[in-house]
Structures are given as structure tokens and as C-alpha cells.
Amino acid sequence: MAETVADQDRDGSPGGGRRRAGAALRRLTRHPRIVPLLARLTPRSVRARTTLAACASLAIVLFVASAGVLLLLRVNLGRTVEAGAREQAQAVARLATDGHLPAQLALDHGTDFIQVTDGTGRVVAASQNLAGHPPLTAGRDNDGHDTYDLGILGDEHHQHVTTVTADTPTGPVTIRVGASLHTADTAEDLTTAALAVLGALLLPTVGLLTWRATGRALRPVEAIRAEVAAIGDRDLDRRVPEPPSDDEIARLAHTMNAMLDRLEAAGTRQRRFIADASHELRSPLTVLRTQLEIAGTHPDPAVRAELVAGALQDTERLQTLAGDLLLLARLDTTGHDRPDQPVDLTGLVRTAAGAGPAPGPTVELHASEGVTVTGNPLWLGRLLTNLLDNARRHARSRVTVRLSTDAATGDAVLDVTNDGPRIDPADRERIFERFTRLDDARSRDDGGTGLGLPIARDIAALHGGTLTVEDTPPGTTFRTRLPTAPPAG
Asked: Looking at the whole model, is its pTM more than 0.85?
């Protein structure tokens, strides 16, 4: 006994409508105007994109879940209908095998028709609704499924057809039993409608909740943006509001305020630097002008020569000050771009230590061999010169220079020590501020501008190092640490 099964749509071909809908969708998505239109319709705000993404994600989840539910429902109901049709067909097959097949067959509940044909295609038995009708003819659709013309039943609907072959005393017969899928279709339609209503309710609800939640979450961001937009170059004392929560937005606000603190401090330093530079330039310019005016009107040639010599000294001081200001500006604009040229620090130290003026304190040098750092040799030379000039200016009789390598960290350590007066601990950081002089009168007389130590510290920081002040009786030591260059190869 052989058995085949076929599902018959009302139009005679299974799945035809679904194939046509898929082809139409593919043609629509390939249209050349669709993609630009979708690009223009894409929302640009974070709030709208988040809401759209939430709704799209929910729609996809609902679609997949609904498809799964409908598939399970169809499979379960189809199996139930198939089991009833198979049971009916097997019962008829047993009657035919025993030779007790009646001409008219009774239909079980859920069965639409029964038709039995012999080997010649003649109808030997049928249900009442097919009595007197010709045999059902099977065809093939494009997918290889059996199809049947069921128009003779009058009320056409989706059916499940089971075909069974049985041997009888008079020869083989073919039994076709059609079971109605109307109940399954109705259940599927109702389930589809319920899922569609559920989706229609869930999507707007999720969209509204996402829109409101995103708006509430982004409200502090908009407040931060508005405050930052209102801050000008003269309003750096203003700060953005910091939410009380400890989330990413609160950390963003805290970071923005920290950045504004740095900008305000930088602006304050710049204004103070400009004011100090103006003051430093005004004094020698005033003196220079006075000297030149007197020299131009004084009748004594000796006095005129002395005034011109003084004017030349003030001009040199102005030139030094201008050079220091330009170097500071260049160091400020260099930022974090560290020079990467290998520099023989031992050679630089020896050159700088031996280049001092003859009348002055004695310079003792203790330098290790082969100390190499990475940096700019001109700037590192300026750092050494500034430290040595400062040490000579404040030393009583001796300046000691030591260059070594720290065994623990591998850094190059340069100590410039003078035996002059110690620096008060409260002033050890202030001396690195620009235009700061602890002994203003003496510094001016010695030609100091108050920029040597700030320049030295900026150069050390630019090279990834530090410059600090330490007490080393009987004097003061300026200690510079610089990272050494990696070994070649």
C-alpha cells in the first residue's frame, strides 16, 4: 500500500501568491530611486534614530516570532488533518483489500471527499458528493507537487489530499481522500490578525516610550551643548551643568568642566604673561629712550659715549628678552610633539660647562660617559645654559655639575648645584613661573629676565622629563630627569 500527500490551494497551485509578492518586493528594492529616497528620509537626530532602531528591532522580533508561531500552528493543525485523512484512507484500503468496498463511502468528520479508482481510471467507489463524477486527475505544478481540479465540489477551499494504493481481489485501486483545511486556515487567519493587532499596539507604545526615555536621557546633553555654545572667549569662568547621576553624561559634563578649567587657567596665564611681558619691555624701552634723548642733547662727548654704551646694554637685554619670549611661544605651540633625535647628553654637558665666563665661580664637572637621550640638541643645550647661568648668578664660589644614569629607572639625571643661599620651600615652585624674581633688584642688575628657569622646565617637560629643586647642603640643586634613548638596533 503506497501513500502520497498534496496540499491544494484554491487557485490550483501551492504558494503562488507568496512567490509573486516576493518578486514584487525584490523589484521595488532594486528601483534606482528608492535608495536615495531612503537616505533622505533617514532621521539625523540621535533621539529619532534611537526610536527608529527600537521600533525596527521590535518589528523584526515580532515578525520572526509571529512567523514561528504561525509555522508551528500550521504544522500542528496540518498534522492533525493529515492523520485524520490517512486514517480514513487506510480504513477504505482495508475494505478494498478484503473485497468489501461499497459503491458509496461515508465521510468521517473533517473529510471532504473520497474517490477510489481502479487501474483503468474507472471510479469504483466514491463519497456521496462525488457520486457520478469523473475521476480526479492529478497534475504537476512548477515545484513538482500534485495538483487536483476540485471545482466539482462546488465550495472550493484549501484541502489536504492523501493518496493511498491498495491491492484488491480484482486488481490494484487508488484511494484519494481530501480533508478540509478550513479549520486550520481559520485558526491561522485569527492568529495572524491577533498578532497584527498586538504588533500595532506594541510598536507605537515602544516608540513612544523610547522617544520619551531618550529625550529625558539626552536633556542633560542639550543643556551641556547650550551652555558650551554660550561660552565665549571672555566667559571661560562659566561651567556646564553636571547631572547628579553617575553615568556617561555626568562623566562627560565633568570632563567638559575640567577642560574649561584648563582653558580658563591657560587664558589667565596668557593674559598674565602678556601683562608681564609688556611691563618687562616697557622699563628698558623707557630707559633706552631717556638715554638716547640725553645723549642727543648733552654737550659732553664723554657723557654721550657713556649713555650710548648704556643704551647698547639695554638693547642687548631687550634682544635677549625677545628671544626668550619667542622660545617660550615656540615651546607652547609645540605641544606634545617630542623631538626624537638621539643626543649625546654627556657631550652637551661638557660643552655647556666649559663655555662660561672666565671671571666667576668655579664649575666642577662629574659626567658619566655615553649618556644619550632623545630630543632636540639646541633646546637641550638651552636648558643646560639656563641652569648654569642661574647657578653662576647665585653661587658664592662653586658650581657642581653631575651627570649620571639612575640604575632603577634608567633615566639620565643631571644635577646643577650652587653653594649660594637656599631657596625657601614656599618659593620652589614659584621660581618656575614666568617673570618671577625672588631678588628683583639683583636679577635686573645681573641681566636676568625671570624666564630662564621656566624655559628650562618647559624644555624638560617637552622631552618627557622633569625639573625640580632640592636642598643639598651647603646649597641648592636643580635636578633634571630625562628618559634615555633606547639602544640602537
From this structure: no
